[in-house]
Design goal:
Blueprint: E1 2-8, E2 12-19, E3 24-35, E4 40-41, E5 50-55, E6 61-67, E7 70-76, E8 81-89, E9 101-110, H1 117-122, H2 125-196
Antiparallel strand pairs: 1-9, 2-8, 3-4, 3-7, 3-9, 5-6, 5-8
Amino acid sequence: LALYFHSGEREEKCIIEDVPMDTLVIGNYKVQRWDIHKQEFLESAPGLGMFVTVTTPSAEVLLSKLYGPQGTFSFTSHQSGEHIICLQSNSTRFVTFAGSKLRIHLDIRVGEHFLDESVVRAKDKVNEVNFRLEHLIEQVHHISKEQNYEREREERFRKTSEETNSNILWWAIVQTLILISIGIWQIKSLRDFFISKKLV
């Protein structure tokens, strides 16, 4: 997932990432500051920092740390589900003008270790093959975890659908019984009324 978004000074922006259990998540970000005079975003925003918070599906704070104007954060999920990743600048009026815009570039990788190409080039061919093979094996494990997680979600969705269908069926039966009871009561009331008026 690679994206960028605009944020105000000290404004918190959050994204939701659906992550399987025991999965490494790595995030890279870079902050750019809007320059009023040049009317463009500057390539860097020195002095700014980003406060990164990660919350689990059970509302447990997994990561809460202050980073620089660009950096990398990572965490490992302890449970499956939607993790909330929030970023907030720690800018002050000494660093940027109040209400100024920030552009945040964010790249999130789920279940993946980044290959350090400089390390790979430094190794001989055999070690390079081993290194890439380990990376591929890790990717296979991640795909397997993703598939298991999708199966779990599909099973939960199926159970919810079955429960909903069952509830709808019972509600329809109850409505039918109520309508029949009201109909019988109305017929009896009309019959009693006609008898009392000696119309029958």
